[in-house]
Q: What sequence folds into this?
């Protein structure tokens, strides 16, 4: 088997791009068929969100096949966490890119994403159909009732690591509070708060470095919000919502929920609050990236075409980051300006995840759903059970109530 040097900091790298600096690890040549099979397997079995995806990729690429060394894999995780969008999806695309360049990235990324997309669109057709069976309505209502608890658990799981990386505790708390308040009250304008917090921390840290070093440095190009909302048709509106999800979200997959909820429910009226809860639950219990939730929103807006378009647009930035800048990952990871931006945007995104629990709870429409929500909080926060198990239990409770209590729905 032939080998070629590649990757952040080393070697000739995958074909079709400029060479990296010498001295990096060598990566064995892997066929596209192998990438299709292995990444497709992860796409079909990756229940549980980013932690599961990272574990499966590490087992495959580092432990079982030794395609990448542990240091490079950890560095790739760090670089993906500095980028907007779904980090575990970007990691999957990056690992495939390291093995077979741009063709590998396209094949691996598609194999990772498409299985979950097929499943979630099929479920969306059932849950959003004109006359879904009563047990389906009960399952959706039950699982949807647990979604605010999932939001709280998602925020709590990110808080400790972010607090340990804080530069200033007061600013960190301010960014957290700003994100929470924006998610609870501002809806579609949340993205401006995330960018504002990142920009504020970037300005503070760059200013401090200038004072300490006496040098004047340029600011990194920060993410820029589009000039205005897209208009002119449902599909264009779906694409605009998906752009915000894929290119302007920081802090993990769940931060997309407050970004989407106001658009899907209040602004465009594509879904009811209860249907949006169902969409979030479906994104959690299906394999693959949690960002697939946007496909349900697209399906509600414009059927199958809308679902496919929303998914394609939402994941396009992740492919672009790797295809155009994968060889610069080491530079991104070491760039103090990128880290400074995330030092502000990251806590704000975590606050937004916490804050999203408020409008999600307000969307509950049946009294028994609050009991299910309380049970979900116990399972997730006290008993520390998994998200998928909790949502399945909540869905089962909803089915039982729907079939046995005539007034449950």
A:
């Amino acid at each position: 088997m032939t080998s070629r040097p590649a990757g952040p900091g080393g070697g000739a790298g995958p074909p079709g791009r400029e060479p990296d600096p010498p001295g990096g690890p060598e990566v064995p040549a892997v066929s596209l068929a192998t990438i299709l099979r292995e990444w497709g397997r992860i796409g079909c079995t990756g229940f549980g969100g980013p932690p599961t995806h990272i574990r499966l990729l590490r087992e495959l690429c580092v432990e079982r096949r030794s395609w990448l060394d542990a240091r490079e894999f950890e560095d790739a995780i760090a670089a993906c966490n500095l980028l907007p969008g779904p980090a575990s999806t970007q990691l999957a695309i990056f690992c495939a890119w390291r093995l077979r360049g741009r063709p590998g990235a396209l094949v691996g990324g598609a194999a990772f994403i498409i299985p979950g997309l097929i499943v979630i669109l099929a479920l969306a057709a059932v849950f959003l159909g004109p006359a879904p069976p009563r047990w389906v309505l009960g399952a959706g209502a039950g699982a949807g009732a647990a979604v605010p608890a999932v939001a709280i658990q998602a925020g709590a799981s990110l808080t400790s690591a972010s607090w340990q990386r804080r530069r200033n505790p007061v600013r960190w708390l301010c960014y957290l509070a700003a994100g929470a308040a924006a998610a609870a009250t501002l809806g579609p304008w949340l993205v401006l708060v995330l960018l504002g917090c990142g920009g504020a921390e970037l300005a503070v840290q760059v200013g401090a470095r200038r004072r300490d070093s006496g040098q004047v440095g340029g600011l990194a190009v920060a993410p820029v919000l589009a000039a205005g909302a897209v208009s002119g048709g449902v599909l264009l509106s779906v694409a605009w919502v998906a752009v915000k999800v894929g290119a302007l979200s920081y802090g993990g997959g769940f931060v997309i929920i407050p970004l989407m909820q106001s658009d899907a429910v209040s602004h465009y009226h594509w879904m009811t609050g209860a249907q949006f809860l169902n969409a979030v639950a479906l994104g959690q219990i299906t394999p693959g990236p949690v960002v697939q939730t946007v496909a349900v929103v697209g399906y509600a807006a414009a059927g199958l075409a809308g679902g496919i378009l929303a998914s394609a647009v939402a994941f396009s930035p992740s492919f672009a980051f790797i295809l155009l800048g994968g060889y610069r990952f080491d530079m991104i990871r070491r760039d103090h300006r990128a880290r400074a931006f995330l030092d502000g945007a990251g806590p704000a995104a975590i606050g937004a995840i916490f804050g999203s629990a408020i409008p999600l709870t307000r969307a509950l429409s049946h009294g028994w759903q609050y009991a299910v929500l309380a049970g979900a909080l116990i399972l997730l926060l006290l008993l520390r059970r998994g998200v998928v198990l909790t949502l399945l239990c909540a869905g089962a409770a909803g089915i039982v109530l729907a079939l046995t209590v005539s007034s449950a729905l």
Summary: Residues 53 and 280 are 18 Å apart (CA to CA).
